Request: fold
Amino acid sequence: MSFKTTLTRTWLTRSTKPFLFTKEYDEQLSFSDLDSLGLYVHIPFCERICNFCPYCKMPYSKEVCDRYIDALIKEIHKVGSMHQGKKEVSSLYFGGGTPALATDRLGEIIGAISEHFTITEGIGLELHPTNVNPDTLRKLKAAGVTKISIGIQSFGEKYQKILGRCAVDPESLKDALNEVLFETVSMDFIFALPDQTFEDIRSDIDKAFESGANHVAIYPFIDFTFTKSPVKAMPKREKRALLDKVTDYCSEKGYPRNSIWTFASKEEAVYSSMTRENFLGFGCSATTLLRDSFKINTFSVEEYCKRIDEDKLPTSLTIRFTLRQRMVYFLFWTAYSTKVDPRRFEEFFGAPLKRMYGFEFALAKMCGFITEEGGVYKMTPKGAFYYHYYENFYTLAYIDKMWGIMRKEAFPDKIIL
Ligand SMILES: C[S@@+](CC[C@H](N)C(=O)[O-])C[C@H]1O[C@@H](n2cnc3c(N)ncnc32)[C@H](O)[C@@H]1O
Ligand code: SF4
Reply:
């Protein structure tokens, strides 16, 4: 852990106490009295493994996938039954991996969830471009999916090759997306690839909206230490210039930024599984945040299924946040939406934001990272770039270390960050 990371953590959490994740965990989860609860389901199978991808996944096998889904449904019932009656939740997101590989069992999974939860803001699901055909889309829609996110990465042949991805035909995407309609059609792109120019990204954005997207996510490439990608991250100055041009272009075209990485052509188009104040995650590698307790399920599909067979939760690690650690976590993910409302902070923590982090917000205002409008802090394009920059930095300092260990050990004793 670098000196800078430790210093920032110490400053913001007002303590030298590190983030400590340990093996001990709760068999009983309590979420009955929580509002703003979201759900996430992880499906860790892919037809082909991409060398740049850090997520928890393995090559698809029907047999393993079926055994996994059986366990997943048991985990949903086990956790869901910890609340009497049906609990209202905002959203349900399916991520992976490639969740569409389990399309034929999606109805069963959503059915299990619906026995315990009422979803008020729709169901989102991540798709690989090869899944975007009318037949699969119709099945997803029939199962209740209302938002989709397609991992394009790039329409350009050069970058598809660099990333080891297959060609994507925008015309066939368009035909399929015209035939089966969804509230949000998001497309993911990776930027800051070697020699990538603004024109390359502009062409990707144009093709996305022309072929049926109403939302795009533009992620800076992150070079995780445990992935085998030969691609190296772009230097900061070039990345900044690219991101500024992307932001200006999207704004000119009428696609305002609606979160750090996303731009949308209509206000209702949203796709975000990360910004919930509390969430329950099901499946391997899924995380759960309930008040100040954050837990991560094991990354091993085999061990996940074993724990469920033993009628135990598949939790691998848990951290009990201190109040300040929880505040930093809250602010980090709220800022992802590019806005922080001090009233919500006070409702959540019972303490005014100005008293807890007044100095930091004044400093951010002075540096031009945020403005204050109607009592709400809004991130400027400069602030968005620095958020990108620090997010990248912390992803490498924290997530890279954690996932690097969890990919190798199903139940590590502890991880200190
Ligand atoms: C879990 S992946 C799912 C996408 C889907 N399975 C696919 O490949 O089309 C979610 C998104 O994370 C982004 N992503 C994956 N690896 C990344 C990396 N090393 N740096 C930046 N973004 C990455 C990609 O844009 C990807 O679409
Ligand atoms: S990018 Fe998508 S398809 Fe590729 S390995 Fe990751 S989850 Fe699987």
Notes: The chain is about 40% helix and 20% strand. The mean pLDDT is 93. The pocket of S-adenosylmethionine (ligand 1) is lined by residues 52-55, 95-96, 98, 126, 128, 151, 153, 188, 190, 219, 221-222, 224 (CB under 6 Å).
